[in-house]
Amino acid sequence: MMRRIPTYFHLTIVTVGIVSMIALTMQDAPPLIRQTSERALFACLAIFIAEWLGKLVYAARSGTLLAYARSVGGLADALAVVPLAAALLLAGSSPTAWLIASLWILKLPPASSGLSLLNRVIALEARSLASVATLFFVILFFAAVMVHLAEREQQPAAFGSLPGALYWAVTTLTTTGYGDAVPQTGLGRLIAGLVMIGGLAVFGLWTGILATGFAAESRRREFIQNWQLVSNVPFFKSLAPSAIIELARLLRRWDMPEKTVVIREGRVGDCMYFIAAGAVEVQVKHGPVKLGPGAFFGEMALLGSGVRTATVITTEPSTLLILEVADFRAFTAANPDLAHLIESEAGKRGGKHAHAAEKAKGG
Ligand code: CMP
Fold first, then answer.
1. Which of 174, 179, 178 is nearest to 204 (CA)?
2. With a 6 A CB cut-off, is 356 part of the ligand 1 pocket?
3. Which of 90, 127, 256, 294 to pair with 177, CA 20 to 30 A apart?
4. Does residue 301's CB lie within 6 angstroms of at least one atom of ligand 1?
5. For ligand 1, is residue 168 a contact (CB within 6 Å)?
6. pLDDT digits 0-9 by tens, 257-277
7. pLDDT tens digits for 327-344?
8. Cα(322)–Cα(254) distance, rounded to whole angstroms?
9. What residue owns the CA closest to ligand 1's atom 8?
10. Among the four given CATH numbers 1.10.287.70, 3.40.50.300, 3.10.450.50, 2.40.30.170, the one describing domain 126-218
11. pLDDT per residue over 195-217, tens digit each?
């Protein structure tokens, strides 16, 4: 697997690069700032070239060159280097050539994963988006023809030709309307009103399609990730596939660094946790109890008084799956076996608590 370079590395270099690029476009900046910016830009480019070559060599050695070159990350790495290096070689170092450094923004991981999400949403919704685009062009074209007919006598300069009328239709349909071409006849204004309403409808539809597409695709990705995590938790192995699917929908993934307090004793609890990866330490009176992958915790508050009985801290970077109390109740009601398992474990843990408390009193 390609090793992940920490996000802050790219964030720092990209920030330095983009700030330097901006500084270079400021003609009245002191020469020292412009020189430093140019040097910083060369340094950033050198780092990106070294990183790209390193990744290419690594991918070639591990036989994943094609996969890397075609991946969103691979594409972002190539775009960060090739166009800029070519422009610098052909035209020399100039503020205009360095503007290509704006492509570095694509190297930020959220940008590349956002791009792959957008790509997928556009691919899935292509037909709906294309129908709205067609509607846009139909309205645009008919509006231009009609306003040309209605206004060409009064305003030949603005509406005398179809290209002029089309320009007006675009600015009106996109609700930009600069006011440089305005219908004067009653019919022309009626058409303008209809076109503006049509524009709002078209953009509303586009936004709606993209927003629902994004939401559905994010849910689908989250479901696949949760499904993989849930089916790897040994505790769920006994569940029927339909129950695992249900759980994958209900659980929320939470990635935590080590030494993070997940639960604090005495607080009110409204969810329980399953450990998909990593480990936690439960701080109980008779000494810390370590729980690893497949174990669960946080169930006692849900089954008892609602108050947490111990503090729980991660001992290594961990992936937890969270089940909210309402989902916990509904799910355990539908899966009595799982409910029984959780209750008996909570009973044992509660027993240990009582035992430790009694020992403390006796001592
Ligand atoms: P809860 O009380 O909701 O929050 C703290 C959690 O620590 C508790 O649920 C249990 O899941 C867990 N816990 C408490 N005591 C023990 C124990 N003796 N062994 C393992 N886990 C425990």
1. 174
2. no
3. 127
4. yes
5. no
6. 999 999 999 999 999 999 999
7. 999 999 998 888 888 999
8. 7
9. 298
10. 1.10.287.70
11. 999 999 999 999 999 999 999 99
